[in-house]
Fold this sequence. Notes:
Blueprint: H1 3-18, E1 26-34, E2 40-50, E3 56-58, E4 61-75, E5 86-100, E6 106-119, E7 123-124, E8 127-128, E9 133-145, E10 151-161, E11 172-182
Antiparallel strand pairs: 1-2, 1-11, 2-4, 3-4, 4-5, 5-6, 6-9, 7-8, 9-10, 10-11
Amino acid sequence: xxxxxxxxxxxxxxxxxxxxxxxxxxxxxxxxxxxxxxxxxxxxxxxxxxxxxxxxxxxxxxxxxxxxxxxxxxxxxxxxxxxxxxxxxxxxxxxxxxxxxxxxxxxxxxxxxxxxxxxxxxxxxxxxxxxxxxxxxxxxxxxxxxxxxxxxxxxxxxxxxxxxxxxxxxxxxxxxxxxxxxxxx
Length: 185
C-alpha cells in the first residue's frame, strides 16, 4: 500500500468521525503478534461508535456492543528477500459485548465479532490468500475500569480469512493486548 492511499483512507475515516451523527465515542490501540505459527508482529488502531442501548438485558447481565473501524498493520521481520514483509488491513466490525451491568469501578466482559476486512496484499511472507476481501473474526475477554468505567483493557484473538470462498485460504491469526478510552475533544 502506498502512502497516498493510506493518507486518503485516514482522512476519510477522520472526516466521517467528525460529523455529529458519526462522532467517535472511543479510540483503541493494540499490539501483539503470533509467535506460534510464524514470527508475526502487529499493531492496530481503531475508532468505536457505541450502541445507544443494550440489545438484551436479564437480571444483572446485558448484551450490548459497538461498531469499530480499524487499521491493522502486520509485519514479519525477516522473510525471504523476494517476499512481502508487511501487510495493511482495514476493517469494519460490529462487536457484541456480554457483561454484567456496570457496578463499581471494575467490570469484566467478553466480546465476539465478525466483520469485513480488506488486505493491502494477497501475500505476506509466502502465505497467499485467494482474495484481498476477508472476514475479521474476534473473541476477547477484558476489564473496564475507572470511576465511570471509561477505560478498557482486553486480550484479543483475531482471525482473518475468506471463509474458503476463494482458495487458498491460510488465514492470519493474531493475539493482541488492546487498550481503549473515550474520545474527549
